[in-house]
Design brief:
The structure holds 2 protein chains of 2 kinds. By secondary structure, chain A is α/β, with parallel strands linked by helices. Chain A has a single domain (11-115, 191-309), classed as Rossmann fold. Chain A has helices spanning 25-30, 84-92, 131-141, 146-159, 175-187, 205-222, 233-239, 270-293, 304-308, and strands at 11-13, 44-51, 61-68, 73-77, 99-104, 107-108, 116-119, 193-197, 225-229, 242-247, 252-259. In chain A, the strands form 2 sheets. Chain A has a 7-stranded mixed β-sheet with strand order 1-11-10-4-9-8-7, sandwiched between helices. In chain A, a hairpin with a 2-residue loop joins strand 5 (99-104) and strand 6 (107-108). In chain A, helix 3 (131-141) crosses helix 4, helix 3 (131-141) runs parallel beside helix 5 and helix 4 (146-159) packs across helix 5 (175-187). By secondary structure, chain B is mainly alpha-helical. Chain B is built from 10 helices and no strands. In chain B, helix 8 (179-203) runs antiparallel to helix 10 (225-258) and helix 9 (212-221) runs antiparallel to helix 10. Classes of the chains: A alpha/beta, B mainly alpha. The A-B interface holds A 92, 94, 111-114, 116-118, 120, 122, 124-129, 137-138, 140-142, 169-172, 185, 189 and B 152, 154-155, 157-165, 168, 172-173, 176-177, 179, 257-259.
Chain lengths: 318, 262
């Protein structure tokens, strides 16, 4: 817990006895087949990061401290306009913070790069390339020889179960498939950290659930550090090791919630329900706080009393 | 026919005769309008008896001459327009300065460049090319700039995320992303270039190289309305074929690739 502005203590939600699963979260971490996440690669550190966009009176981010440990799945939630995307873009190197440092495995981040692969909400795949060529693109830029590229692209396609669709153009794929190609494109570069900017927000509910499961499976298999931004509480609770609730105007960390529940998570369990309630309450409080702050300008639904006045003067101003 | 003046209002058969006459093929689909109908155009020193076969006829030569001029001028125009469009997209200040200027140039009919071209460059090939280029490069630059503006910023961002930097970002991301813009700017530019060239050839008579515009003007000088109409038809057909069979197909293929076509 590194947020400096939070009065509420972070809570830890641990599985109750009846919810304990044969394979707990901690066990999974050890039993990971691929070792590169566990070996300590992918430690993303934001220290005292502030960002104020020109022309804006409030900070999009102010003194944000965040550490993502190797192999950790961190989900950032918050009301719209609270700086979630800015936080992610700073980590990606797309936005330069005004002050503070961002490091990945002790290397300072200055520009976007393949070791911090990003999955965008609108996928950002290139329409002039096929699915396989899109995945190959990063390898080509990295100067990987053609012979090696083919094998790695095939492996990445297999990882997202899209091998039969390899030669289709992007507009020929469904929304869910596009996001899977985008994830494969990010993973094929073997990044130290995976940054995901509301990647499933534009999908329908069924596809989203399916992709949640696939993402979890991928995460367990590859053990990448994932920094995931969303406005959906359900998504956060389902996926996260740790949930960060952001505070808007200025953007700060309002609360961190450690989730120590086994994967895959059952939405009917009491722990999950309680956790959803906690996070939702945090976000609602935050939205109310922001609205109250802007009360002068913020439109509120008027009550009949506000509108009614005296029937006798109705039409006076016409 | 009472009241009908075939030398003013030629019948379709007259136009057909004139068209074939320009191809050194003598036919008589229409009533002869005058004694030597249809008229044939002779090269200096050439005799009627020794006419070239149809592929060496005035019309074919004119199409070839105009085609070569078009390719030459259009290539220069595309290069100039592409560089300007690219710079205007890249540097906003330049666009603020040049944008309205080019838009103004576009509203100027291309034949309005003719007097300037005659005075500064003389009545020669470069004068014709000058008119063609001035008539089309601004359209190419503006259409390309607008198309480049419409490239989603997500593409370069995704490219940079995957390690494309410097010239690689331009070559592998921005260039292919701009293909739809490039295709539509070529198509617009071509129709501007073709119109400018026909206008220029009408006025510039470079005796050695007789383009389609020359044939049109020659028809006027001989009061041969049928020939005038025949040459106009040829111009329309060539412009249409180039647009339908070349540029429209290129544009369609790019759009299909990008998922933009329905």
């Amino acid at each position: 817990m590194r947020a400096n502005s939070v009065s509420i203590k972070p809570i830890e939600i641990t599985p109750s006895a009846d919810e304990a699963r044969p394979q707990s979260h901690g066990d999974k971490r050890i039993s990971t087949p691929s070792g590169d996440g566990v070996s300590g690669r992918g430690r993303l550190v934001l220290k005292n990061v502030s960002k104020n966009f020109p022309g804006s009176t409030v900070h999009a981010l102010r003194d944000v401290d965040l550490v993502c440990d190797p192999g950790e799945f961190v989900v950032v939630v918050g009301p719209s306009g609270c700086g979630k995307s800015t936080l992610l873009n700073v980590a990606a190197g797309m936005i330069k913070p005004d002050s503070g440092t961002v490091t990945l495995d002790d290397q300072p981040i200055r520009a976007p790069g393949p070791e911090r692969a990003m999955v965008f909400q609108d996928h950002g795949l290139f329409p002039w390339l096929t699915a396989a060529q899109n995945i190959e693109f990063g390898l080509k830029m990295a100067g990987v020889p053609r012979s090696d590229r083919a094998a790695r692209v095939d492996a990445a396609l297999k990882l997202v179960h899209l091998s039969p669709k390899r030669d289709l153009l992007i507009h020929e794929l469904s929304g869910g498939m596009r996001q899977r190609v985008a994830i494969a494109r990010a993973l094929v570069m073997d990044p130290a950290v995976l940054l995901m900017d509301e990647p499933f927000a534009a999908l329908d509910a069924q596809t989203r659930t399916l992709l949640h499961e696939q993402l979890q499976e991928l995460w367990v298999r590859t053990r990448k550090t994932i920094l995931f931004v969303t406005h959906s509480v359900g998504e956060a609770v389902r996926l996260a090791d740790r949930i960060i609730v952001l505070h808007a105007h200025p953007g700060r960390i309002r609360r961190e919630i450690k989730v120590d529940l086994a994967h895959p998570r059952n939405f009917d369990s009491a722990d999950i329900t309680q956790l959803v309630r906690t996070v939702r309450k945090e976000i609602e409080d935050e939205v109310n706080r922001v609205n109250a702050e802007m009360a002068e300008t913020y439109w509120k639904p008027q009550t009949p009393g506000d509108l009614g006045a005296d029937p006798g003067v109705m039409g006076d101003g016409i | 026919m009472i009241g009908w003046k075939p030398w003013l209002f030629p019948a379709p058969s007259h136009v057909l005769d004139a068209l074939l006459g320009l191809m050194n093929i003598h036919t008589g689909f229409g009533e002869p309008i005058s004694a030597h109908w249809p008229r044939v155009i002779l090269e200096p020193g050439q005799h009627v008896r020794a006419l070239a076969p149809w592929w060496g006829s005035p019309l074919m030569k004119a199409i070839l001459v105009s085609g070569v001029r078009l390719l030459e001028g259009f290539a220069i125009s595309v290069a100039l327009g592409a560089i300007l469009g690219l710079l205007m997209w890249r540097f906003l200040e330049l666009d603020r300065f040049l944008g309205p200027l080019l838009l103004g140039l576009q509203t100027l009919p291309s034949v309005c460049w003719v007097p300037l071209a005659i005075l500064t460059l003389g009545i020669n090939e470069s004068g014709i090319l000058f008119v063609l280029i001035m008539g089309s490069f601004s359209a190419i630059a503006l259409v390309l700039r607008d198309g480049l503006r419409n490239i989603p910023p997500l593409y370069p961002r995704a490219g940079m995320m995957m390690g494309a930097r410097g010239w690689r970002l331009y070559y592998y991301v921005l260039l292919p992303a701009s293909l739809p813009a490039l295709a539509s700017s070529l198509r617009t530019g071509f129709s501007f270039a073709w119109r400018s060239l026909m206008g220029a050839e009408l006025i510039f008579v470079v005796d050695k190289w007789r383009g389609l515009g020359f044939l049109l003007e020659a028809g006027r000088e001989f009061s041969d309305v049928a020939q005038v109409v025949a040459v106009m038809i040829v111009m329309v057909v060539i412009g249409m074929l180039a647009d339908r069979w070349l540029f429209a197909i290129v544009q369609r293929r790019v759009q299909t690739r990008f998922g933009l076509a329905t």
